[in-house]
Structures are given as C-alpha cells and as structure tokens.
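Input:
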Amino acid sequence: MAAVSDQLLVYAILGYALAMLAYAVEYAFGSRSVVARVAERELVGAGGRTAAPGAPAPVAPSAPPLAAPGLAENARIAGFAGRGALVLTAVGWLLHLAAMVTRGFAAHRVPWGNMYEFIMAVCFVGATAWLVLVTRRPVLRPLGLFVTLVLVILLGVDGMLLYTKVAPLVPALNSYWLKIHVTAAITASGVFLVGFVAAALTLIRNGYDDGKTRFPYTLGARLPVADSLERTTFRIHAFAFPVWTFAIICGSIWAEAAW
Amino acid sequence: MSTVDERPVEAAAPPPTPGPASGLVALGRRAWRWLTSMRTALILLFLLAVAAIPGSLLPQRNLNLEKVRAYYTAHPKLAPLLDRVGGFDVFASPWFSAIYLLLFVSLVGCLVPRLRSHVVALLRVPPDAPSRLDRLPAHADGLALHGDPAQVAARLRAVLRRRRFRAVVRAQPDGGFTVSAEKGYLKESGNLLFHFALLALLIGVALGSWYGYKADRVVVQGADQGFCNTLQQYDDYGLGSRVGPADLEPFCLTLTDFQARFLDTGEPADYRAAVSYAVGSGAPADAVIKVNDPLRLDRARIYLVGHGYAPVLRYTDRYGKTQTIVAPFLYLDANKTSSGVVQFPDANVDPVKGRDPNDKQQVAFAGMYIPTSDGTHAVSVFPAERNPVLVVTPYRGDLGLDAGIPSSVYTLDQHQIDTGRLREVGSEPLRLKPGDSARLDDGTTVQFVGTRPWTALTVRYDPGEKVVLGGAWCLMIGLLVSLTGRRRRIWFRIPASGPACAGALSRGEYPGFTAEFDNLVKEVQ
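Output:
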C-alpha cells in the first residue's frame, strides 16, 4: 500500500506539471486583452461593486478590437489550453487524494504524522483551495500557472528530500490533538499557499500598472486587474488566518499536555 | 489588525503657552502619539517575535544550565559577549522587557481612546443624512413612497429596525423627514475584543514567567529513589522571579514501574511510568504518567520526558562490607547506549581505625551500559534490554567528592585521574552480564546485579495559562467578528413634497452591499 501511495504521488506531481504546462500555453496565447476583458466582465457581472474610497481605481484595460483573425485563433488555443489545464489539475488532485488515502491505510492512521506527509497534505489543501477558487471565479485562471508551479516544486522537494518510510506515530505525536491541531494547521497552510500566490501576483500586477518593466513585473501584463487580485488575496487570508489562529491555540493546548 | 473605521477627530489641542517647557511638552506629546499609533504597535509586535528568536536558538539558563555551560565550552570567546547582552537569559533581559513594556503601553494607549470612542459611537444615534445622497456609492432616486411624510418615515424606520439597523427619524426645517440607519457596530466591537484579548495574552504570559517554575529530575525506579518537590532535590530548575523555594507545591513522588514498548525497528511505540505520590501530608495515591498525559496536581504538573537504565552494582570491600549502589547512566543515542559511573565513596573504610584522609581507597566503576549488544561493538543495537552488557573500568583512590564542589554524577572527576589520586585498576575493562561477578586485584568483588529503569521528569507550574487560554479564545472570536462584520449606513430623505431618495455608504469592503441596498429599496416601495 505504501508503494502504491509513492507511485500515486509521482503521478500526481506529473498531473500538476502537465497542468502547469497547459496553463503556460494559455498564458502565452491568451492575449493581454482576453485576460483583461474577462476580468472586466467579471467585475461588472459581480454587481458593479464599488471600490473602497481611497483605493486605486481599477486600471482600464486598453482592449484592442478582437477583429484580427490571428488574435481569434490565439484566443481559441488559449481557451482550449486553459480548460485542459483545469482538467489536468483535477486529475492531479484526484491522484493526490488517492496517494494520501493509500498512505493513511498503509500507516493505519491519519496521513499527516511526519514532515513528508504534512507537506503532502498542505499541498493537497492548496490544490483543493485552488480548484474551489477557480470554479467560483474563473477570471483567476491565469494564476493556475503559478499555483501549480508552487505545488510541483513543494511536492518535488517533499518527495526527494523529506521522504519518510511509513511508520506508526512516535509517542510524542500520539494524541488526539494531532487530528485537531495538525489538521487545522494543514488547512490554513494549504489555503495560505494559494493566498501567497495571489498576494505575490497582486504585487507584480501593481508594479506592472506603475510602469515597471523589469522581469517579474512583465508577468503582470496577463494577470487579472490588481483590484480584483487584491480582493481575492484578502478573502483567502481572511479565511485562512482565523483557521491558523485556531491551529496555534490548539497547538498550545496540546503543548500543555505534552511538556 | 485592520484600521480604525471611524474615530472622531480629536479636538485640536489648545495652543501651547510659549516657554521653555512647551518644547518638551510638544516632544512628549509627539512621542506619545507615535508610541500609541497602530503602526508602532505592529512594529513592536514584530520586534517581539524577532527578539524571541535568540531565546529559542541559544540555550537558556532558566531552562537548561548544562547546555549553557556546554555552549561556554564550545564558544569560549563568543559566550561571554552573548551573556553580557543577555543572550542566555533572553526573556528576562532588559531589551526584551523594554519591547514587551513598550508594546504593552502602546496597546493600552491606543486601545483606551478607541474603546471610549466606540462606546460613544454605540450610544450616539446615526448622523443625519448628507445633503447630497447622490454622491454616495449607492443611491436611488424617485422612490415610490406615497403618503404622509411622517408616516413614511416611521414605516421606513420600522423596516430598518426589523433588519436590525439602528434607525432614527429626524424632522427637517422644510417639513420633510430624514431616516438615518446604521448597522455593523459589531465589527469594531470585535476589533476591540481582539486587541484587548491580545493584552490579556501578554498579561498571562507575564504572570506565567513571574509566578511559574519548571524543574527537572531523574528518578530511578524504587521506593528508595523517590524525591520531593524541593529545590535541593532537582538536577536543574528555573523559578519565576516572584517564586520562592517555599512556594513549590509540597509533594513527594516515587517511580514504582516503568514500561517502554518498541517497534522492531527500534522506534518507540509507547512509554508509561507508574508513580506513587503524596501531596503534603495527604495519603499516597497512584498514577500513570504517559507522554501527552502528565500527572496534574493542583499547582504543578509532572511530565515524562525521557527514560534510561540505571545499573545496580554490589561491591564487597576489603573488610567484607557489602554495599549496593544504583546509578542512572545517560543515554548517548536512540538505542540507549548509555554512559555513566557507579561510585562507592564509603568503600574500604577500616571499621576500627576509620578513614585515612590521605589514603582514600574509594572505588568507582565508569563505563558503558549496552542494553542490546551485538557481541562485538560497544554500541547498542536496540533500545530494549535484549542482550545487556555492562562494560566498566574500575577505579580506586580519592573520588574527589569530599571537596564540596558540585560535580557531575555521570562522569568521574578527570582532575583526580590526571593528578594520579584516582587510578585505574586492572589492565582492561570488566565485561559483565546481569548476575556476573568479577574479582579485583585486591580481592574485592563486584557484582552486576541488574538494572532499574529511570525516568526524566519535568515539573512545571504556570498560573498564567488560564489567562492565556481565555485571551486566545477571545482573540479568536474578536478576529472572526471583526473580519466578518460590516459597518454600513443607509439614509432616506423624504421631502415634504416630491419623490424620496435614498443613499448608502459602506465602510471597508463589503461585496454584498449594493445588493442589500437594492433589496431594501425594493422592499420599502
């Protein structure tokens, strides 16, 4: 069972890597205008929400007309690649889930009893959070490239450097607080993972809007508008932060019983 | 921490009277304003976290004196420098206290005015409608509200109150009415709760470090090896600054049984220590201490933090006197390869003439205990006792224990060996299995009786915990409320004649705000 889990994780990483590739294709072919226009439509569709007083006004995307046939062709490829990327992410997520479940069965306990399993679970929550987010707000799909990048790197490092053989819990971890504290910590960390991507890209987009032309800021051209990104970043953190607080409180209560 | 939503503009201070003191007053006021700003509080909070890092990286005196000594040996030049800046006593150092106190003052100075203005806001009725409602982010004109303006206003107020708005009707000089409504005061309440909880947390931690203590003790199994909760009996301890030796909970404890279960890989599976204890002059009681399951007394908790083996040696000296000594050996690795020394300071004392202080014939056996030997190497291959071997070198002479200098009970005094006052006996170490005996060159015998388990226990008391716990939960509630609460105001203006209009203002981000406003406007028409 443990070997099955290891295999499944490799396939899950592969799934995420392929998804990353597909997101990259979408990113490359999706012209700036497509991304920006979707963003605009989304903003309007959400009921004309108003910017908080003092917040920078959303940058009006300078949308060139979609008349040129080459552009239409590109947009078609981008859309196809984007949908493919989502499917691949979902497949990776399923494999990831299977890897965790088999790991849990192999160890006869919750599959987050050591650092290897912890990172695996954090990435799983991250992937889940991403799928939930992108389903609810499709405009954020360009972020997928960076989310899957983080997932692939983290899972790769996890599998290569932190791999641990299946073993029962050491006595210090053998407590029901493991299920409460660590689960909360994993949930918060996984959501923070997506929040990190959103926050980093908000900064990049902001820099791009300010006219910065050096490398990381050039990525901003194809991102959703900064305002939308910032709101998403806030929401993600507003969810994860209380969960994280809860995790720390539970950790302290556990510590009271542990030493 | 979110920003303050609303804060009445403070009345401008009266112009200071010119004079030499006014400069100082202005400086003081500026400093106070800087100190109590939210930005400063955040910086201080961050500094506190940064300042705690050396406290976890460097060994701390109040936690582990041995490690501090080891650090001094390993870094003879760096250690005194670090000590001068409080590196081994971070949480009691002046600079840490300075950050702590500044943060405390900053929070109080910031929160008290906020609390006052929030109370004022809670008591105050919502302000009158602004003159131009169409300037507001959400507004609606030409509302189909028919009837007597006064009745319409009353009806609107009823609708708003049903929606748990705080609403008030004002008559205008032109014969019309305005309805002002406000909702979402809970956001600032939560925000304040969060910050006051943070204060409680700080107080709780301070209480714990003043009135709490922690002490460590190795306890060997057996009724003759118990200990009582007094400072002399601890190997290591750290008392809070307001704790005296008499404040320790008076209990005595003996280890009656210890069981460790291991997996075949040598990984530990389970530890349990059965103890017998008595508090004060009370009746003795039995308890089991496990990892994650300490023994909880009223004013102390006892944790199981480690275990090892204590070899028991029986030595028969030249005068035929037999003594049995049990000495805990310190483990060196996960498989419990242990090292230590069994000392017989009262050996070879002539029963007639007494001890000759210049020719002490004290005896000690120093070496290794290997719970599971593979037969050749001096390293254990399993943490349980599957093939135990004791490999010890006998020493005879002056153990150096009578000088009154505290010394480690796990090693011999190297100085005594170097100066030749303590000499090795025989050419090679003794290799003893449980029950084995050996004869030394002077005809005395030593027998390896067996081992007893020992446990390392930590006794801890922290009266601030409950405050910290309560503070933490309040903080959590405050955080949730302040993150989900939404402060918004709605106004209706009903002129004496002509169509009514409405406007609304949300403070902070609230995506459903426009929808709520539209719904409300639809409902009242």
